[in-house]
Amino acid sequence: MKKQIALLLAALTIVLSGAAGFGGAFLAGSFANTSVVSQEDATVYDLNDVPERDGEDKDADFNSLIASPDDDPSAAMSLLNNQGDTPEPQTAKPQTLTIPQIAELASSSVVEIYTESVVNSGRMGQFVTEGAGSGVIITSDGYIVTNNHVIEGSARITVVLSNGDEYTAALIGRDSKTDLAVLKIDASRLKAAILGNSDKILVGELAVAIGNPLGKLGGSVSEGIISALSRSIEIDGHMMTLLQTTAAVNPGNSGGGLFNGYGELIGIVNAKSSGTDIEGIGFAIPVNLVKAITDSLINHGYVLGRIDFGATLVDVLDSWTAMMYRVHTTGVYVSRADSDSPLQAGDRIISINGKQISNSADVYELLDTRKVGETLTIVVSRNGNEVTVPLTLRQEVL
Predict the structure, then answer these.
(1) pLDDT tens digit string along 270-303?
(2) Which of 42, 279, 301, 341 has the lowest CB atom count within 10 Å?
(3) Is 381 within 8 Å of 344 (Cβ atoms)?
(4) Which CATH architecture has domain 307-395?
């Protein structure tokens, strides 16, 4: 019996020694081949070794747990079961970082973005306007995610790293619906952000925003908490489900990073509620959505499966707006249509597949349930007459 127990103890010691020598590591995500790897929780083992005392048999302490043959065998089995052949693994969250530690870990993955756009004006002629925002490095070879509204319409995009190095950026792809865009700079060995898991965020968790507020304060850090997880916010006619935070965000923070207490990227800042009596209400795109959209933009240049409606819509929901557009009836109007679209500029959309349309959000909500290749039946008001037109949905390619 002692010999068997000694062998069991020796095997257990080898297992525990291997476990104690094991170190945690994580892989930085690479978008080069369409996938992103996020940091995982470390697996640790609780080791409770009994120190050996001088001059005593190595098996003495373990033997004291084993009943003699004269004792109750059920008690002996109970002791053996409680001792266990191997320790039970436990999953432990890493220790949360201080705000200075988060800033040190994440700041070098956040960049400043400056844009130039050419504007044509009948009165002023052609002139250049400038804009600014933020971005987050998502791969070490130069892919950067930002907001679509930061770079939309830009003729030139400049990226400034945290060390001051400047690069001209190429636009890889953008998606107006999720307000995301991917840029690429010709650089290597960059510090990419560690991507977290926005499905595991809890209300009340620490949130740290890093960005370029006012377009001139790059690398600014502000802290707060996660106020809510799934806020439905309408932005530019699109309903978005966003994280809400109390971390201070300002114009120029758009496209920057929102990080958790472990220094992981959990969101891309994209909006702020503003007003005389409004403070501490900012919003960010959850990182899990960011992963999916940027992966598709990098590999295809567009979001695979995203529907192209072939027309731009405008909401005319009050008399003032109706007067501005010189129409007599409120509703959803087509302001621009592709040359091959059955819709025409000036059409007022009455219904789609029998569903009454009150605003453009109704249209986008319906499109979310459809697939590329499906045909919709649209009833419009055109020149005072109701007209029914079929519209086949196409893949959106920007």
Answers:
(1) 976 555 455 678 999 999 999 999 999 999 998 9
(2) 279
(3) no
(4) Roll (2.30)
